[in-house]
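hey so u asked for the seq, here:
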Amino acid sequence: MVTAWAASSGFMNLWIPTSAVIMGGLALAKVGYNTYLRFIAPLLAILVVLIAGFLMLGALMN
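ran it, structure tokens below
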């Protein structure tokens, strides 16, 4: 359960607009949020598959 929470928390912090680190970094770099989302979308898709796979593997091994 802790692993699932940690994985989802890290995943959500990459794209949710209330993350101060992401929004502050985007503001300093003068990059729009929509541009950032378009850039990071392939990474997010890969991470969803990897996170789901690792969680399934962990559940099967338990």
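Residues 14 and 22 are 7 Å apart (CA to CA). Residues 33-61 form the longest helix (29 residues).
lmk if thats what u needed
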